[in-house]
Amino acid sequence: SLAGSGASELLAAELVRVGPAECLMIEGDDSLAPLLPPAAVITRRGPELFAPSAAQRSLVRAFGGAPEASGLSEQPLAQRAMGALLAYVQEARPGIIKTLEHPRVYAIGGAMVLDRATRRNLDVLESSAGDGGPSLLRAVDRTSTPMGARLLRAVLGQLQLI
């Protein structure tokens, strides 16, 4: 969870970096809506989906064992968010749950925060000159599979795009 001064700026920068196509939110809570990309779909569910007990049940169903095995036992808000997300995925695409790996905690602390304009001007993932222009990604991409290309893009994105 993000707290303290600058937390909302870090969250806004992370949402820009991730560029979510969809965001799962509690009904009646619009606090994140202004931070999301304009094209992002907001899916709303009742607060019961985000309850600690419901989250633990979802984690156990998806990954088996005790909820502590999820790696989120020290982060109750992350555990509730993951549980709600798993319940939503189970509702939307039931068969996909079996293919998921255990969650990993991702921390954004210690990274430099760059706004959208700076990210674009540095030409890390995309060229500011338009399609086909030079970028760091194009210069170092020697991957041979789509999965490798996605991984490289994700790694470069995490290096400085927070």
Structure explained in plain terms:
It is built from six helices and two strands, in the order αββααααα. It is mostly helical and 162 residues long. The mean pLDDT is 81. It is globular and about 50 Å long. It has helices at residues 7-18, 52-63, 76-92, 116-121, 136-140, 146-160, and strands at residues 22-26, 41-45.
Index terms:
162 residues, mainly alpha, two-stranded parallel ribbon, 2 strands
Strand and helix map with partners:
Blueprint lengths: L6 H12 L3 E5 L14 E5 L6 H12 L12 H17 L23 H6 L14 H5 L5 H15 L2
Parallel strand pairs: 1-2
| Low-confidence runs of at least 5 consecutive residues | none
Percent helix, as a range, is: 40-55%
* Count of alpha and pi helical runs: 6
Radius of gyration: 18 Å
* Main sheet makeup: 2 strands, parallel
Overall strand count: 2
**Main structural class:** mainly alpha
Mean pLDDT: 81
Q: How far apart lie the N and C ends?
A: 15 Å
In what range is the share of β-strand residues? Answer: 5-15%
* SSE string: HEEHHHHH
Overall 3D form:
globular
Q: How are strands sequenced across the largest beta sheet? A: 1-2
Oligomer: single chain
Question: Can I get a quick summary?
Answer:
The chain is mainly α and 162 residues long. The protein is built from 6 helices and 2 strands, in the order H-E-E-H-H-H-H-H.
